[in-house]
Design brief:
310 residues; alpha+beta; five-stranded mixed sheet; 8 helices; 5 strands; membrane; Pilin-like; transmembrane helix; transmembrane; DUF1559
Length: 310
């Protein structure tokens, strides 16, 4: 009899087991958000470091060539000028991004730039050009032959292809644009007050139309080629953002693949804002609630508006 009683004391009742299971479930529910937050914090840190590395590479390029790289190259007046080089600024800094072998594979004389032997180079997906918080991939953009990117350059608040005008120049507003050759001395508002690069979500949808007067989009957001290539910069959604809208905007965005006016904002998967690289090399997380006028001033290198706290 004593042995039987002793054996019964060693076991758990059904109610006790259910209580233990319930406690474990509650602990898991409490811990999961903390684990997810820690993972996202690590991803945000990696994204920030990517932009810092890009900033160093851009300054190395400036030290070597005397200017920051052009956002893209178009040989105006050519019969098929929209299909001329169009190799992006991100390809031009590869040698300083620990990608010298890949840089050496590129044939800069090929037109269009995406053809020939360059088709192999541009197919590489580079971790340094991807934000780990964004799961978007080639399938998202529908562009299987290109390695996507989360980092795009600012074309300020003009909204045209290179940001404005029939000559496709941005009239000196941003640092990198079509055929640009910007030097540090041209950044009259100061390198700490002028941004060069921010984020985009790979494959985020926009309307394939021109922005009306450069500020309003119509139609449906069905095109998903945002950030589709770090190499080929024919299309504005691949390589640029404008400051006509604030970070993570809820407004409809739009652009055509060649020419016209575009309205494309900086955008990220991070809660509350976007990482932004400034001309002095620092990276700052900019709130999506930033005043639009302040955001536009930060995108213009020589508007005379020196920004303080924001």
């Amino acid at each position: 009899m004593k042995a039987l009683l002793s054996n019964r004391r060693r076991g758990f009742t059904l109610i006790e087991l259910l209580v233990v299971i319930a406690i474990i479930a509650i602990l898991i529910a409490l811990l999961l958000p903390a684990v997810q937050q820690a993972r996202e914090a690590a991803r945000r840190s990696t994204c920030k470091n990517n932009l810092k590395q890009i900033g160093l590479a851009l300054h190395n390029y400036h030290d070597t060539f005397g200017t920051f790289p052009p956002a893209t190259i178009r040989r105006q007046g050519a019969t098929t000028e929209w299909e001329t080089s169009m190799i992006s600024w991100q390809a031009r800094i590869l040698a300083s991004m620990d990608q010298a072998p890949l840089y050496n594979q590129i044939d800069w004389s090929i037109e269009p730039g995406r053809t020939g032997t360059n088709a192999t180079a541009m197919n590489n997906e580079l971790p340094a050009y991807r934000c780990p918080s964004d799961p978007g991939n080639r399938g998202t953009t529908g562009q299987s032959g290109y390695g996507p990117t989360n980092y795009v350059t600012c074309t300020a608040d003009s909204g045209g292809y290179a940001a404005g005008g029939s000559t496709y120049q941005n009239n000196g507003r941003s640092v990198m644009f079509l055929n640009s050759k910007t030097q540090i001395r041209d950044i009259e508002d100061g390198t700490s007050n002028t941004m060069m690069v921010s984020e985009c979500e790979v494959g985020s949808a926009f309307a394939n139309v021109n922005a009306t007067s450069g500020t309003v989009c119509t139609g449906s957001a069905t095109t998903k080629t945002r950030g589709f290539s770090w190499f080929y910069a024919q299309s504005m959604p691949a390589w640029s953002f404008t400051t006509l809208v604030g970070p993570n905007t809820d407004l409809l965005e739009c652009a055509q693949s060649t020419g016209g006016s575009a309205l494309l904002g900086a955008r990220s998967k991070h809660v509350g804002g976007v990482h932004t690289l400034f001309c002095d090399g620092r990276v700052q997380f900019i709130s999506e609630n930033i005043n639009l006028g302040t955001w536009q001033n930060l995108g213009h290198k020589s508007d005379g508006n020196i920004i303080g706290e924001y």
